[in-house]
Design brief:
This protein is α/β, with parallel strands linked by helices. The chain folds into two domains: 6-35 and 282-410, Beta Barrel (Lyase, Ornithine Decarboxylase, Chain A, domain 1), CATH 2.40.37; 36-278, Alanine racemase (TIM Barrel, Alpha-Beta Barrel), CATH 3.20.20.10. It is 28% helix and 26% strand. The strands form three sheets. Strands 4, 14, 15, 16, 17, 18, 19, 20 and 21 form a nine-stranded mixed β-sheet that branches. Strand 14 and strand 15 (301-305) form a beta hairpin. The longest helix has 16 residues, at 210-225. The radius of gyration is 23 Å and the shape is elongated. 45% of the residues are buried. It binds ligand LLP. Ligand LLP binds at residues 60, 63, 81, 104, 164, 201, 204-205, 239-242, 275-279, 314, 318, 372-373, 377.
Length: 415
């Protein structure tokens, strides 16, 4: 995944050369920190690998929806994959090009479909016959044609965590191959739709090429079966899902992944669409948190920090591993400890039995690889204000989302 922006200078952890401790002094803790350089490097890795194939890389907004992150990617030429009207609203705010927006999701509301139609997005990825019918009817009502891709459920096992696998027959996602074939065969049922694409998304944090290749093979078989109708398609959308290294995983690089897809699909003469989220922003972000206190339990050493599961839910929700680095590297032997938040739940942890060097109250820790599905899954549980977000870009840092205020916590409530 290229070079790491987070490195020690002497004993001080830095982001692209800037001291993280100094940023913490300025903005307080906890906060999310992103390296613009790393996001850019990852996005460009897709572009460089795909230079000789028609394609559009559509960043999955759900992975990190901060406006500054979206704007950065937009300025680099990225398209976007959205799953809600809220995400569409964010893209309007940054002036994204409608013709670079894909609308995915298994349950789009009527008003969301209408918003997509009126914006003139590139393609709706539809996941059921009901949805195709609804898009058709709303398009008719507003006298707009809708470009749609049918999201296929290719029935492959992506070998990832059960909660984020999406491409097998037991999942709510997509349309089975044979049903999809029948849909493409009777376009007259949907007079206001143009079937522009065929799409899939088999899951997330996938660390092998094989499941992607199998999915593409399935889509390819379908395109061939469609004959003349297959020839009218413009887009082959492979979805997102490329994994990153959190612990000891050895995922293919962005280059290997993109080259493999490019070679496999070249003969189809379709424009390749990709919806990467995690592989672009995951490793670019850390969550900086301060140690409130340490405590020795009956059996375990606990480090209680000022971030909680409301800030980062991945460890407890998926059993996800996130490396934790002290912002100032201390001397001393590593011992096993649990790094936990202040929330009244046993599930409020970031690491269990993790070997860490000596830690004391006031020390800063960086929870690594949280640029994807970190802040975007944060909540206000325990009436905790959501953390600030900070970006390092061109040698300086800036707050790209203020820490919430207490007033923010209650401003929508009425007595
Ligand atoms: N396209 C669609 C239709 C998706 O549903 C997703 C992610 C993506 C693209 C982007 O996938 P990525 O490249 O980021 O793997 N909250 C979980 C991940 C959920 C992924 C949901 N869909 C986590 O923290 O691991």
């Amino acid at each position: 995944m290229g070079m790491d922006s987070y490195r020690y200078k002497n004993a001080a952890l830095c982001c692209d050369g800037l001291s993280i401790a100094a940023i913490a002094d300025a903005v307080g803790t906890p906060f999310y920190l992103y390296s613009a350089t790393m996001i850019e490097r990852n996005f460009k890795a897709f572009e460089n690998a795909l230079y000789d194939v028609p394609h559009l890389t559509c960043f999955a907004v759900k992975a990190n929806s901060n406006l500054a992150v979206l704007k950065l990617l937009h300025d680099l030429g990225s398209g976007f994959d959205i799953v809600s009207q809220g995400e569409l609203y964010r893209l309007e705010k940054i002036g994204a090009d409608a013709k670079r927006i894909l609308f995915s999701g298994v349950g789009k509301r009527d008003e969301e479909i209408v918003a997509g139609l009126q914006t003139g997005i590139l393609q709706f990825n539809a996941e059921s016959k009901d949805e195709l019918q609804r898009i058709n009817d709303l398009a008719s009502k507003y006298s707009i044609r809708a470009d749609v891709g049918v999201r296929i459920n290719p029935g492959v096992d992506p070998k990832t965590h059960a909660y984020i696998a999406t491409g097998s027959e037991n999942h709510k996602f997509g349309i089975p191959m044979d049903a999809a074939q029948r849909i493409y065969a009777e376009p007259r049922k949907y007079p206001h739709l143009t079937f522009t694409g065929i799409s899939c998304h088999i899951g997330s944090q996938i660390t092998e090429l094989r499941p992607f290749q199998e999915a593409v093979e399935s889509l390819q078989r379908l395109v061939v079966k469609l004959g003349a109708r297959g020839k009218c398609l413009k887009f082959l959308d492979i979805g997102g899902g490329l994994g990153i290294r959190y612990d000891k995983e050895q995922p293919p690089s962005i280059e290997e992944y993109a080259r493999s897809l490019a070679e496999q699909t070249r003969s189809l003469n379709l424009t390749l669409l990709l919806e990467p989220g995690r592989s672009i922003v995951g490793k670019a972000g850390v969550l900086v948190t301060k140690v409130i206190l340490t405590k020795q339990g009956a059996r375990k050493q606990f480090v209680v920090v000022d971030a909680g599961m409301n800030d980062l839910i991945r460890p407890t929700l998926y059993g996800a591993f996130h490396a934790i680095d002290p912002v100032r590297k201390p001397a001393g032997a590593c011992r096993p400890m649990d790094v936990v938040g202040p929330i009244c739940e046993t599930g409020d942890f970031f690491a269990q039995n993790r070997l860490l060097p000596p830690v004391k109250a006031g020390d800063l820790l960086a929870i690594r690889d949280v640029g994807a599905y970190g802040f975007s899954q944060a909540s206000n549980y325990n009436s905790r204000r959501r953390a600030a977000e900070v970006m390092v870009q061109n040698g300086s840092f800036r707050v790209i989302r203020e820490r919430e205020s207490f007033e923010d916590l209650v401003k929508l409530e009425r007595l």
